[in-house]
Design a protein that fits this description.
The chain has no helices and eleven strands. With about 120 residues, the chain is mainly beta. The strands form two sheets. Strands 2, 4, 5, 6, 9, 10 and 11 form a seven-stranded mixed beta sheet that branches. It has a four-stranded antiparallel beta sheet with strand order 1-3-8-7, with no helix packed on it. The N and C termini lie far apart (about 35 Å).
Length: about 120
């Protein structure tokens, strides 16, 4: 089974930056989509960014131009670079993996099969 472990969260001031990492193990990885989601207390889990196996990406409107999703396949690692952080970005951030199909929706949580335990991001 695929296992995912996030890291890189922490405290940051408004306007600052953080880079989250997600290390994947247990493959195979061919045909997988990867995504970042976040959840604040009392709110539903929200899709932030996702990447298909062919490299195409999708972002939530709230983070476009500020966040960038990327992969280092040699290290089996997914990244989320977060710039110009806002208070409303405060949440627990999760990485996820799913088996791609023709109708896969990158920002929909129910599409994903595997989840990390999360890393907290707090902006103040």
């Amino acid at each position: 089974q695929v296992q995912l472990v996030e890291s890189g969260g922490g405290l940051v001031q408004v306007g600052g930056s953080l880079r989250l990492s997600c290390v994947a193990s247990g493959g195979p990885y061919a045909g997988h989509c990867m995504g970042w989601f976040r959840q604040a207390p009392g709110q539903e889990r929200e899709g932030v960014a996702g990447v298909e196996s062919d490299g195409s990406t999708s972002y939530a409107d709230s983070v476009k131009g500020r966040f960038t999703i990327s992969q280092d396949n040699a290290k089996n690692t997914l990244y989320l670079q977060m710039n110009s952080l806002r208070v409303e970005d405060t949440a627990m951030y999760y990485c996820a993996a799913g088996t791609q199909n023709i109708l896969f929706r990158l920002l929909v949580a129910n599409e994903y099969n595997y989840w990390g335990q999360g890393t907290q991001v707090t902006v103040s």
